[in-house]
Amino acid sequence: MVGGWFGSSSKKPQPAELQPVVALVPARLAWTARIGDVAFPLEGAVTGDTVVLAGTDGTVAALDARTGRDRWRAVIGTPIAAGVGSDGRIAAVVTRANEVVALDNGREIWRQKLAAQGFTAPFVAGGRVFVLAADRSVNAFDGQTGRRLWTQQRPSEPLVLRQSGVMLAVGDTLVVGLAGRLTGLNPLNGSIRWEAPIASPRGINDVERLVDLVGHTGRNGSTVCARAFQASVGCVDAQRGALLWTKPANAAQGVDSDDRFVFGTEGDGRVVAWRRADGENAWSTDRLRYRNLTSPLVVGRSIAIGDSAGFVHLLSREDGSLLNRLTTDGSPVAAAPLLAANTLVVVTRSGGVYGFSPE
């Protein structure tokens, strides 16, 4: 039967069956908490022993990572599209109404309208709030007053990725993903210091030519490694703005890294480790194929990866072998797990928050 207007006879690939696991890295569920449902993957922020999380409904909460108790909780009154960024005091999110909202220890202190929608969590550092919008603009706001300090506008494309992008600090440089490039900006005035291409547009139409860097990234020292959406993975020396290597890779989720490897999940669920020095393949495993995986997180001797059934898989950094499997509420893990105060923090789409501690 040939597929037509009403669909195709081809079946969706079945997720890999999970094999029994021996807990070689023992972990226990230390606490649970709740935020609002997470319909869009919202990144959390870690500062010391505090983790700040957001729900799509407008809930923003700072939790003690050791106990799961609220340090503060706020409801901003409008759905959230991107968040959350925090420096430990100021937390910032982007709403679906294209507003940046800043909270000081849970108290709203300002809102500012953006010219375009934002899908990337604001970056809060140095008393400023930096926001990457979908029109390829980077905006800097005063953290206390919300006054716009500068805007760096890059040429926009007909299509943009509705997904979290790249924004972090390396030394005194703000590193941002603009189209397929990592770009180093002066955080004081927005001027461009360097650009390094992870991927370039290809194809003949707007869809094929769409290229964007996706969060999350792996950073070790001045080396930042990132993924270009369904195109490649690469590493850049962010001190010099020099591309170290890039390799073809096909997926939509970000990467993490340690001092030896860069870890990522491919579109079919393969988990891959590339050598950080030169990008050559170190190992890969098919044990989690078609399980709709999150970006990985390096934690101890493992990498932690969530899936669409609410499991968190701990794989060996050395060879990808399974070290443990953690259970949440059965709804998809919403974003890459977080590590705070030696606690692995996992958020699910239904708003469950789970803190796992090593035994």
Layout of helices and strands:
Layout (H helix, E strand, L loop, with lengths): L26 E8 L10 E3 L2 E5 L4 E6 L5 E6 L4 E7 L3 E6 L3 E6 L2 E7 L9 E3 L2 E5 L4 E6 L5 E6 L13 E4 L2 E6 L2 E5 L6 E6 L8 H4 L3 E8 L2 E6 L3 E6 L4 E7 L6 E3 L3 E5 L5 E5 L5 E5 L11 E3 L2 E5 L4 E6 L5 E6 L10 E3 L2 E5 L4 E7 L1
Antiparallel strand pairs: 1-32, 2-3, 3-4, 4-5, 6-7, 7-8, 8-9, 10-11, 11-12, 12-13, 14-15, 15-16, 16-17, 18-19, 19-20, 20-21, 22-23, 23-24, 24-25, 26-27, 27-28, 28-29, 30-31, 31-32
Description:
With 359 residues, the protein is mainly beta. A hairpin with a 3-residue loop joins β19 and β20. The strands form 8 sheets. Strands 1-32-31-30 form a 4-stranded antiparallel sheet, with no helix packed on it. Helix content is 1%, strand content 49%. 47% of the residues are buried. The chain has a domain of 113 residues: Lipocalin. It is built from 1 helix and 32 strands. The longest helix is centred in the middle third of the chain and has 4 residues.
